[in-house]
Amino acid sequence: MENLFLIVALAVGLAMDAFAVAVAQGAAGHNSMFHATRTGMAFGVAQGIMPFLGWALGIAFVSEISAYDHWIALILLSGLGLKMLWEALGRNERDAVSSLSGWALGTAAIATSIDAFAAGIMLPALGLPVLLACVIIGTVTALLSSLGVMIGGMASSRIGRHAEVAGGVILIGLGIKIFVEH
């Protein structure tokens, strides 16, 4: 049960970049059900695949990093969380948001999934079930991104910044939790 909570918390934290982009899309008027579904699917698939790729790299080097895994988790998750906070707090709220489709959507999905790749590197050291983690991370991201487009359409672009800040705080908190519990 604790592993499931950890995976869901990780998934929510990792999904906040994609959620923030999705909210901005909806707030900019790109908020049809088609756009919400397409955005959610693109972000969800990328977020689900990237931790698997990170896990494959991590498993290749698990014996070399097992003595330092708690430090790696703290540094990676805190670094990702701080990066999200830096980006969220440094962005101008009035910046125009163009519609994401085609290559732009794919690029945004991959760009917001880099943190999931880094998180995947730690999965072997944390003993989390990799495929379950990837499915949950992808599903949570898809749902939150689709919902984000619709919320953005009903609210304003200010929500996106708060979502990114929350995601950053969650990732930093997870890094500290893993470090302390080691």
From TrEMBL:
It holds the Pfam family Mntp. It is found in: Cell membrane. InterPro entries: Mntp/YtaF, Put_MntP. It is a multi-pass membrane protein. Keywords: Cell membrane, Ion transport, Manganese, Membrane, Signal, Transmembrane, Transmembrane helix, Transport. The chain crosses the membrane at residues 42-62, 71-89, 101-123, 130-151. The keyword Cell membrane applies. The keyword Glycoprotein does not apply. Residues 1-20 form the signal peptide. Belongs to the MntP (TC 9.B.29) family. Probably functions as a manganese efflux pump. PANTHER family: MANGANESE EFFLUX PUMP MNTP-RELATED (PTHR35529:SF1). This is Putative manganese efflux pump MntP. It comes from Parasphingorhabdus flavimaris. The gene is mntP.
